[in-house]
Amino acid sequence: MRSIFGWDLPPGAADDPGAPWNQKEGPCDVCGLSVDDCICPECPECGEQGDPICYEQHGLVLSDEQRESKKRADDERRESDKRMTEYEDQMEREYEREMALRKEAGEE
Ligand SMILES: [Zn+2]
Ligand SMILES: [Zn+2]
Fold first, then answer.
1. Of 27, 13, 25, 22, which Cα lies nearest the Cα of 80?
2. Residue 61 located in a structural domain
3. Is 15 a member of any domain?
4. How many A from CA of 31 to the centre of ligand 2?
5. What is the Cα–Cα distance from 21 to 5, expressed in whole angstroms?
6. What is the distance in A from the centroid of ligand 2 to the CA of 61?
7. What predicted TM-score, i.e. pTM, was given to this entire model?
8. Ligand 1 center to residue 47 CA distance, Å?
């Protein structure tokens, strides 16, 4: 039986540079941008960039720009998660309908 997770991404989503599946690595935990676009300074203490621990333990302070950027990224991610969930729900309903139709038709 075909897995319901075997379907393609929503139209256009595959090209969305902000989509989670297009991130080489996870987005920066501090500014929310992809690693390439990260605006966080290097930590003078440990040399890490965009590590939340530096802001808790190594004395780094978030700039307004980082805060804004993170907030925007979180909003976008929520929006994209919502679209993904809606799409999954829709695909699941369509899959169930298809299965029901096949059953009616006497097929497996
Ligand atoms: Zn960052
Ligand atoms: Zn650090």
1. 13
2. yes
3. no
4. 15
5. 15
6. 11
7. 0.60
8. 13
In a domain, 67, yes or no: yes
Report the candidate in 89, 87, 63 with the shortest Cα–Cα distance to residue 12.
87
**Where do we find the tokens 């530096």?**
54
For the chain, the residue count is 108
* Ligand in nearest proximity to the CA of 32: 1
Q: How many domains does the chain have?
A: 1
CB-side neighbour CA atoms (13 Å) of 75: 6
pLDDT band at residue 106 under the 50/70/90 scheme: confident
Q: How far is the CA of 44 from the centre of ligand 1 (A)?
A: 15
Contacts of 80 (CB under 8 A, 6+ apart): 16, 18, 19, 20
DSSP H helices, 1-108, are 52-57, 64-104
**Does residue 23 carry a pLDDT above 60?**
no
- The domain of 96 spans 27-104
Tokens standing for residue 56: 């808790």
